[in-house]
Structures are given as C-alpha cells and as structure tokens.
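Good morning,

Both structures are done.
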Amino acid sequence: MVWSRMSFIPAPEPDTGRPATVRAALASPRALRTEVLAGLVVALALIPEAISFSIIAGVDPRVGLFASFTMAVTIAFVGGRPAMISAATGAIALVIAPLVMQHGLDYLIATVLLAGVLQIVLSLIGVARLMRFIPRSVMVGFVNALAILIFLAQVPYMVDVPWVVYPMIGAGLLVMFGLPRLTTVVPAPLVAIVALTFLTVAAGIAVPDVGDEGELPSSLPQWLIPDVPFTLETLQIIAPYAVAMALVGLLESLMTAKLVDDITDTRSDKTREGWGQGVANIVTGLFGGMGGCAMIGQTMINVKASGARTRISTFLAGVFLLVLVVGFGDVVAMIPMAALVAVMIVVAVSTFDWHSVRPATLRRMPKSETAVMAITVAATVLTHNLAIGVGAGVVTAMVMFARRVAHFTQVVVVDHPDEDTCVYKVVGELFFASSNDLVYQFDYAGDPQNVIIDMSESHIWDASTVAALDAVETKYRAKGKNVDIQGLNESSLHRHTRLAGNLGTGH
C-alpha cells in the first residue's frame, strides 16, 4: 500500500500509464468491487450537494438530482476521461440563477440545450487545445482553491447545530484516517457514512440529516421539451447564459480531467471530454435537468479516496443516485449530514497541495509564480467560481511573462569596421512587449553615416516589432544616415518584408 504525504487516505498503487478498462475491471472481482463501492459512495455524497445546488439555482431539488443522474450516466459512455464524475454543480447554478428568477424553468431547459450544442461545437473546433496555455502555477492555485471551497461549503453544516454533531464529524474523520491502515477492502468513506447513520438511528440522536435539505423525488425523470417560443427574442434571452454556461462547464471539466490525468498518470481525450459534456447537457435538458459539468469534489472522492479508475464507477454513481432517491428515499433521508461533512473535509485536506505553501517551497519559487497562484486562489474563493479564478490566474501569468521577457532583449554595439560604419547586434525575442523601447536603444545623433543592425540572434514575432524597426530607420534617415538590417531568419524576413513601410505612422 502506498501512502500519500498529504492525505488521510491511502494513495492508489502507481498506475502503469495505461488507462484501466471496463473489460479489465469486469474480469477482476477486486477491481469491480472497488468500482461498485466507489460509485455508491459518490452517489451518497451527491444527494445533498445536488439539492443544495438546486436551491442556489432557484429550482426544485428534483431538477438538480435528475441532472446529476443523467449527466453521470451519459458521460460514462461519451466522456473522454474515465472515472470522472459529472453532475449538477455550483458554478453552473450561479450562472443560471438569474435566468430562472426572471424567466422560469422552461427557459432554463432551453438554455441547457443550447449550451450543450455550443460545447459540442467549441470542442470540435479545438478549444481543448487551449489547455496547454494554462501554467502550472494556475493549476496549483486551481487545486488549492478547490480544496478551500470544498471545506467552506461544509461550514454551514457546522454552525448552529447540536453539539453532538462535532464528535460525530470527529468520529467520521477517525474512521477515514484509521481504517485504511487496517484494510482497503471497503472504502473508508462508505464505512463512515453507514456507521454514523446506524448510530444516529439506533440511539435516536436528533441531528441535521439529508432529509432536511429538501424533498427527494418519488418518480423517474420524464422526457421534456421546453415550452418556449422558438423566436429570435427567446434566443436573445437564453444565448448569454448558454455561452457562459458552456464556457464555465468546459473549463471546469477540462481542468478536472487534467487533474485526474496527473493523479492517475494517464492521458485522456480532452476533445472527446468536451463534446461529451455537450451531449450530456443535451440529454440532461431533455429530461428536465439543470445541466452541469465535471464535479471536482465528487471526482476526488471517486478517484483519490475510493481508487476508482474506469467508467463503471461513473455509470454506477448515476444509477445508484436514482435508485437511492427514488427507491430508498426514506432511508437516504436519515443519513446525518455530519457523515457527509466528514467525507468532504477529508477530500478537501487531501486535495490541497500542501507542498506548494511550505516556507521552503515559497522561498525557492519565483515571486511571480507565487503571485499567480495566490491570485488564482483569491479570485476563485471570493467569487466561488473556478472559471473566474482560472481566468484571473492566466491573465496574471501572461502579464508577468510579458514583463519578464520584455527585459531579455539587448541592443549592443559590437563593431566599428571603419570610421563611417557602426554595427549593432539585437539579441532576443521581439514582440509587442520587448520591442516597445527598441527605438530608444540607438544613438541617432552620435552614430556615423552607415549603421548596420545585425538581427541574426533575434526573432521578429509581430507587427509591433516591424513598426519599431520602421521607426528606427525613419529616425536615422531624418538625420541623413543609412541603415541596413541584416541577418533576419526566414520567418522574420518574410514578416519584415511583407509589413515594413506599410504600417503607417500611427501603428
């Protein structure tokens, strides 16, 4: 058994780099048991969160629960990242809440359907490839912010509650900390949930339970076509929300897929995951669900806490959810919230990258990298929106990178072959940030009649650099001096030849 330094739970045995398959899991009783029990744990943890997100969105709890069922089952077949959980999420709830308040459920369903179509289109045109532009510091900030949000989401269940809730949470944490040291046959979170539920029922302890979160459905979801006029006015109402929902859903799903890739040492198909999310949202909308995306906390329960690796756990999480709320709603309603809070606290602690905030790490890390991580965390926690946090982190990283690279360009005098000639050498990558002050690096008045600018150790990346070189030539010629730009590589020469003299004085 391999133990994680940052976790109260045993880390899964190292992966081989090849994704686990459904066929292999079905052929192994041990692996199949892991998948089945992981799906059950995720389903139990999904119920109160789906209800909470429904309340945030302003819809009936059944809308969130049905969305979680249809999202999980559909993505199990069409998604690109095995073992990842998709369901109704808080980020989506925040996006659609104003629409529900102003226009009602039917417009919400229409929005979910349109968002699904947009996610399919965006994925097929290659939006997943943009993930390569997300720096590691943003990814670390994303993970740390996620852990903080998971923990903060549990705080309301620990405020103004009977005192017995606190020892129950402690007992749950003790089970999840100690049981894996003895056995991993049954997931520790499942044992904690069952044990605490049995205790509260047998002892008649009055504590908040799942039933207090909202009414559970008693029937299966039904096919639903939104009752909205198919007009341009309807499109104008739902389009802004659909675009926001599509982008937020894609970003959270792709970031979660990358996180699971890192945990399992495997690669996933991000493009398939993107359009799979779109298909899942369309299916969800047609069954009256509120839509959703990858659910990071539940994914961590499935992959990290329970050790699941295949689509079986994802599929069963959705199936178990429906069976539990429809067939065993009375039993599920008895689960104390303290048990689920304990599970999510362990997930939060094990998700946080503790190494990233150690004093030794912070001393070694460049201040710009630490700033990017801190801004990502702060923006995410303040807005409770992972998409906004990641966007803020990426923009900060871009600005920091541009400022740093801008100082790498050097202009130096390297030769005076004769008294009438001066040779400058430009070294570095030239783009809008680094070439802005290029025009000020030459001695226009003091230089001799002929000036050679050697560009053999530089590269022109954009029109801003060509405009800067045009300005240099203009200043020399205004003083009656000749300028010869030499040594351009093929790409730079092509760009300079095409644009030089054609950008105008205002550019």
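Second structure follows.
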Amino acid sequence: MAQLDVRQKLEILADAAKYDASCASSGTAKRNSRDGKGLGSTEGMGICHAYAPDGRCISLLKILLTNSCIFDCHYCINRKSSNVRRARFTAKEVVNLTLSFYRRNYIEGLFLSSGIIGSSNYTMEQIVEVARSLREDHEFRGYIHLKTIPDADPELIHQAGLYADRMSINVELPTVSGLKRLAPEKDNGRIEGAMNGLKTSILDTRDAKARYKSAPAFAPAGQSTQMIVGADAATDGDIVTKAARLYDRFELRRVYYSAFSPIPDASAVLPLQRPPLMREHRLYQSDWLMRFYGFQPKEVVAAADDATGMLPLDIDPKLAWALKFRDSFPVDVNRAPKELLLRVPGLGTKAVANILTSRRWRKLRLDDVARLTVSIAKIRPFIVAEDWRPVALTDKAELKPLVAPKKQQLELFAA
C-alpha cells in the first residue's frame, strides 16, 4: 500500500468519523489561556460543528485515529471485511494537527475515536497518548472528547478520563438481540460494565473535588453514548426505554441517535434503505421530553402507535401524547402548576417560565399567551385563559387536522 501523507490521511479519517453523532462540547469546566499560559480554550464561539445547550457553536476537529478494525460489525463502514481505503494516524500526527488547526482558529477542541487495531489495549494506549501529549507537553486547554473502547484495561480508561473533558462508549444498538445479530464480537455486558466504571470514577472524583480542591478532574463533562436507529427491528418504544434506562443507571449527559445509513458492500442482514431522518428527529424530541419536560419513559412510549411501537412522523411526540390523552386537558394557564404547563403542545420551557412570571401580576388572556409562543393555533385546544375556553374544540372528535403542522410545497427557486 502506498504511503499516505497527513493531508490524505485527514481526508480519509475525517470522512470516516462522520458517522459518529455524539460530538457535543457542553458541560465541561471552563478553561482558557488568557493569562498567557498554555494554549486553547473551552469557551467562546465556535471541521465539525456541535452546539451547546445555550446555542453556542463549537468547532471540533473530528477524526478517527484509524479506520482499520479487527471487528466485523455488519453496520459499520470500517468493519474488517469492508472494501474501503484504510489510513492510520500516529499519536504525534493527531497532536500536531490539533495544534495546527487551533492556531489557525479553525477549531476549539478535538473529538477522537478509532477503529480497533492490534488489540483494544493497544488502541486505547494510542488514544491516551494523544490526550496526554496535548495536555502535558503542550498545555492544551481546549476541549477533548475521547471515544472509549469497552474492552480496554480499566486503568487505561481511567488515564483517559484524567485528560479528557468528556468520554463516551457507544452502546451501538438498542437491544441485546440486535447487538448479537449485527455485532457478534461485541458484548452488551462489557459495554455497560465499562460505562458503569466511568460513572464510578466520575462520582468518586466529584466527591474528592468537594473535599480537596487539588483533586484531579475526571471527565468533567461526563459521559455520553450513541445508538444506531433503523439497522435492526427495534421500535421507537424500545429505543426510548433503553435511553431512559441508560440515563438512570449511568447518569449520562446525552444519548445520541444516528439514523442508519446504507453502506457499500453491505451485509445481507442489513436493511436496503435508511430510515426516515424524521424518525431520528422525533427520538431527539422524545429525549427532550424526558430530560426537560418531566415526562416519564412510559408516557413517551405511550405516544407511539400501539400496533407498531413507532412514534408518528407527521407530528411531534408531545402533540401525539396530548391527542392520545385528551382527558388531561385543557390546562388553565393562570392556575396550573409548571408540570402541567410543560405538557401543553407548543409551550416550551421558556414560554412556560414567562407565563409563570407574567401571571403573578395579572390574569393572562389568549393574546398574552400568543405573544409568548410561535403558534397559538396549536395551543388553543389545550388551554384555558382569562378570555378563552376551548369548548367546541375540546369536544371535537378529530382534533389532529386542526393542530398538526400544515404540509408545505418547497419553492424550487426560493430567494
């Protein structure tokens, strides 16, 4: 095989990393080099663009250490039997690339993953060496996200956590049966064992930090994971239930969802078509309902179709739940607690906060609520205001056509 220069390797390994969705840089400790010491920052405005919860755009160098792998997972473009062009960075090359891109103001951090070469321990050693060199040799203070290899020695994973802001271990597929069928060399028990080890280290470090300021930080931005959607027969209900269990058991910061994309020379066990991208979007909305709107997992699952277990694609899960459980409405915007207001379709967390603040001073009318939201038409059937009661709408047998978003034909030559 011909020798590749760094530019050619970057082209191959940056493209190979695009299938990993768990690439956000929120939640870490704030560091910068304004005092003249070190290099880099985890602050400021943000090639891979990730978005923090406050809307900031963070640019990360997102690459694989190598796209060679000893595993043969059916869904992976970099699997052992895949006919793709292979490349491999040295640890020093990744360090130099990161520093070079940072100095050009292209990036604010590094997202590093890898196929498994030689062994899990050898690969993890190379990943740790990249993070160690950046932090210790070059005093890099920017964001570092490392993908962890579950089968690696726990001590190597612990070392990685001392240098990384966030670590992640992909559970890959929502069901154990799906993992056994599509990735037989991977084991759900080992994956969750490694995730539990990360959780323990994060909690231990948090406790030590509370007692001793000099205690070293361990993955201050926590851990995340990713699930592939549509590669197996798992329903949206299965995925939501799995995500809720992961959040509860391992205190994850995020669960990412990645719609399966057909790959060249695909295995016969894989579907021929990718799932609708809207399905991925609906799962993220469901995730938001559990994390920020107080919905229980079983309530989100209840919004799915009883026969198929799939969330509707034409309306969001919150509206689907409200239409299915209309006995919970209407909600009085002047009297209802925050928990009930958050269940009203069309009311986001900011709108609810503004309603709670405004109603302390006067009774809210329908026009007042309209000024706080994007679409009052979607909200009207589900609320009571000082001058509004949805009597006719509440009794209407088929409410969905009135509140579902209207389908629009896109303009070919829109300005």
